[in-house]
From TrEMBL:
Residues 81-263 form the Helicase ATP-binding domain. GO terms for molecular function: helicase activity. Coiled coil: none annotated. This is RNA helicase. Residues 569-578 have a biased composition (Low complexity). The gene is LOC104721296. It is an enzyme of class 3 (hydrolase). InterPro entries: DEAD/DEAH_box_helicase_dom (IPR011545), DEAD_box_RNA_helicase (IPR050079), Helicase_ATP-bd (IPR014001), Helicase_C-like (IPR001650), P-loop_NTPase (IPR027417), RNA_helicase_DEAD_Q_motif (IPR014014). Residues 297-481 form the Helicase C-terminal domain. Residues 50-78 form the DEAD-box RNA helicase Q domain.
């Protein structure tokens, strides 16, 4: 058992030093008698099966959840909500997509509902929710706001981001909101600008949430967090939510928490699987040059379910891929840290709303920085000239993989392999969220094999030591891929570095214009957002008609069969917009598809029409660890 200590304040912004010194007295009071504090560690068991009512939640919240179509708490919610309602400090470690946001938001709101409204008016928010990226800030803010609206309570939430001016921040805080959602960098900025008073925060703050805690320090927020923690009163309840365990989480735990209860979500008693078991993981071995060919085969032959999120490691690669796919009539949009914030949020909204099926994304700026180190190519001189012209400013608070809740992503494709195991886990976590299922396909070149082996051995556990968790993708035959080779290589040659660079610059210009010109208009007319499409073609020339459709004679029978099965399953699950069918029809079909419609589970690569138990994914269904999966599928 470890002891909880509060670390001394070190690098605090000098402009707020006076206030911080005052507040240090509060901090000292916080430390009194804490030497002997111990944390409790608790594993979240699978067999807990409580309803939201049984967790002690307010009926207004339960009604709001029902309106959102959420009927049953996830495991982490079942476990965390009662402790948070009791007022305990919590460290909640649960895999990505397990519903951690509601696990803290529901009790947090309930506590604010019942806070004594007769007490003197607070000069600072009662709850701070600190998150590592702007996208996440927006997401959490939307979730809180929609819950407040659905519950019809008199609470106000605001979000602050570092790009806001002092007067924007002042305006946002003017209505004395109870809840503040922001990145940690905003708080010292508010102190320095006199928008928030540290003493008022010390007096008012009741709950502090650090979401995606494992990222907060690695994103460089340590100093910001120290200046916040120095003024947190002892009575303030602190909640630390994280998908992975890391030394950073431990550091934050020691810096901020008091006598915490550590909740660890595992699927059975002794193992911790970081990737949800409802995500089937596949890989395809191919050379780096053949990646375009393979992704074309996956998407064009429709052997993966939509919607698809495709990860690449550099922004240029994203544009190359978009231009390449475009030539085959496959529309996609690009998301990266170079785009203005409004555009990024809008792209996410449109993808979540199902306006397009393919989104190409870089995960965060640590990956895209690599671009600077890329070897110089043919048009080297041109390259250097244009670098002077175009210095894309990457947003330090951009992150796609971490915490962002992509809706109904069925497949994640790693076009480029991530640089770390954690990167892999978080990318894969964009599918299979809460009670849904999904799959991932990683394209692995010989250069990436070592990293891939590291990922596999990390994911392997005692039970799966001898069997691979990431298995070869079964629905794509070599023949099917080879049939597309000639076309793919021909088109790939036409996507030159110059065309990539021009498209990237053009896209950025367009998005900046969209973002600035339309900001005010969209605030007044939110519905018009739908008119601004992000999946428009980049290329000036229209795709050649013969590349749009792959003639049937080119595709072997097995792949045709796999493709049909994937499409049928997609339509039955309501994944395909083209399948038409109203909600009623989709609902009827849902049950059927759950039983055996997933072709990745039933398709037999050896040729028989239906695999009876021998298909990929079957093992997972029948293993001991599947109790949760079965339970989830019946919800
Ligand atoms: N009890 C529930 N039943 C069904 N869906 C839920 C439930 N709780 C949350 N969800 C949905 O599951 C999705 C994932 O939730 P959330 O974003 O909170 O996951 P997370 O654990 O925070 O993941 P990450 O670590 O990636 O941030 C969201 O779309 C959310 O609305």
């Amino acid at each position: 058992m470890s002891k909880t200590k509060v670390k001394p304040v070190e690098d605090v912004n000098p402009e707020v030093m006076d206030e911080v010194e005052e507040a240090e007295e509060v901090e000292e009071q916080r430390n009194v008698g804490e030497e002997e504090e111990e944390e409790e560690e608790e594993k979240v068991e699978e067999d807990v099966d409580k309803s939201f009512e049984e967790l002690g939640l307010d009926s207004r919240l339960i009604r709001a959840l029902t309106k959102k179509g959420i009927e049953k708490p996830t495991l982490i919610q079942q476990s965390a909500v009662p402790y948070i309602l009791e007022g305990k400090d919590i460290v909640a470690r649960a895999k990505t997509g397990s519903g951690k946001t509601l696990a803290y938001l529901l009790p947090l709101l309930q506590k604010l509902f019942s806070a004594d409204s007769g007490s003197k008016k607070k000069l600072a928010p009662s709850a701070f929710i600190l998150v590592p990226s702007r996208e996440l800030c927006q997401q959490v803010y939307s979730e809180v706001s929609s819950l407040i609206e659905l519950c019809r309570v008199q609470l106000k939430a605001v979000q602050l981001t570092s790009s806001m001016t002092a007067s924007d921040m002042r305006n946002a805080l003017a209505g004395l909101p109870e809840i503040l959602v922001s990145t940690p960098a905003c708080i010292p900025k508010c102190f320095a600008a006199g928008v928030l008073e540290p003493t008022a925060v010390s007096e008012s703050l009741e709950i502090l949430v650090l979401d995606e805690a494992d990222l907060l320090l690695s994103y460089g927020y340590e100093d910001n967090l120290r200046s916040v923690t120095s003024i947190i009163p002892r009575r303030c309840q602190c909640l630390l939510m994280s998908a992975t365990t890391s030394s950073d989480v431990e550091k934050l735990k020691k810096l901020i928490l008091h006598n915490p209860i550590v909740l660890t979500l595992t699927e059975d008693n002794d193992k911790e699987e970081p990737v949800p078991s409802n995500v089937q993981q596949f890989w395809v071995s191919c050379s780096a040059q053949d990646k375009l060919l393979h992704i074309l085969a996956l998407l064009k032959l429709e052997v993966v379910q939509k919607k698809v999120l495709i990860f690449i490691n550099t922004i240029d690669m994203g544009f190359k891929l978009k231009l390449f796919l475009e030539k085959f009539g496959i529309k996609s949009a690009i998301l990266n840290g170079e785009l203005p914030q409004n555009s990024r949020l809008h792209i996410l909204e449109q993808f979540n709303a199902g306006l397009f099926d393919y989104l190409i994304a870089t995960d965060d700026n640590s990956q895209t920085k690599k671009e600077k180190e890329e070897p110089k190519g043919e048009d080297n001189e041109e390259n250097n000239k244009s670098k002077k012209r175009r210095k894309p400013k990457l947003d330090a608070e951009f992150s796609v993989v971490r915490g962002i809740d992509f809706k109904k992503v069925h497949t994640v494709i790693n076009f480029d392999m991530p640089q770390s195991v954690t990167g892999y886990i978080h990318r894969i976590g964009r599918t299979g969220r809460a009670y849904s299922s999904g799959s991932s396909v990683s394209l692995v070149s010989p250069d990436e094999m070592e990293g891939f082996e590291d990922i596999k051995s990390f994911l392997a556990n005692d039970k799966n030591k001898d069997s691979d968790i990431i298995t070869p993708f079964p629905l794509l035959t070599e023949n099917a891929v080879e049939c597309l080779r000639y076309r793919a290589e021909d088109v790939a040659k036409s996507v030159t570095k110059i065309s990539v660079r021009e498209s990237r610059a053009q896209d950025l210009r367009n998005e900046i214009i969209n973002s600035e010109k339309l900001k005010a208009h969209f605030e007044a007319n939110p519905r018009d957002l739908d008119l601004l499409r992000h999946d428009k073609p980049l290329s000036k020339t229209a795709p050649a008609p013969h590349l749009k459709d792959i003639p049937e004679y080119l595709v072997d029978l097995k792949t045709q069969e796999a493709s049909k099965a994937v499409k049928l399953a997609g339509a039955a699950m309501g994944n395909s917009r083209r399948s038409g069918g109203g909600a009623g029809r989709n609902n009827k079909n849902k049950k059927r598809s759950r039983k055996g419609g997933d072709p990745l589970k039933t398709f037999n690569p050896n040729g028989s029409k239906r695999g009876h138990g021998g298909g990929v994914g079957q093992k997972k269904d029948s293993s001991d660890g599947s109790t949760k999966q079965k339970k989830q599928k019946t919800v």
